[in-house]
Amino acid sequence: MIDRRKITMRGNPVTVRGKQLAAGDTAPDFTLVGNDFNPVSLQDFGSLDNVQLLL
Question: Does residue 35 fall inside a structural domain?
Answer without folding.
Answer: yes
